[in-house]
Hints:
Layout: H1 2-8, H2 14-25, H3 31-38, H4 40-54, H5 63-70, E1 83-84, E2 93-94
Antiparallel strand pairs: 1-2
Amino acid sequence: LDAIRALEEGVGSIQDIDTSMKLGLGYPMGPFTLGDFVGLDTTYYIAEIMFNEFREKRFAPPPLLKRMVMARLYGRKSGRGFYDYTKDPKNPTPMRLV
């Protein structure tokens, strides 16, 4: 969720943030790649449950995530999310979302 907020605030692009997390912190995949893999609808609903349970702002789904779910941009399973998988699923291209 923090990566989505960073994207909304213009801290970096989808690729910048994903690459930074992989190279800088040694994660096997960046947060946007992971979100697309898990499913953005799933991520949204988990965030809603966590926010409703704990009432901590950090768990509230970011507006961008909500808009993406409403637009049915779920990630890999829908063909588009933070990345577009429709043309070349093995080499997806970042979406222009913000």
